[in-house]
Hints:
about 90% helix
Amino acid sequence: MMHDLLMDDRMKGEAAGIFFLGYVLLQMAGGHLAGRWSAKKLVGLCLIFLGRMRGGLRAGENILSV
């Protein structure tokens, strides 16, 4: 797979580091928000937000395909 993506070991390490940093930051933010509100409400709000974002992307695809 690394040959197909034209990645060497340095680039693989950078990608893993960026993934780890993003994971840690999102875990901290999610933990903070879940502490302020209930986890059930947080998951519900995230699902609504992601659904609306996907709807917006779908509308954008339709506009660009015209």
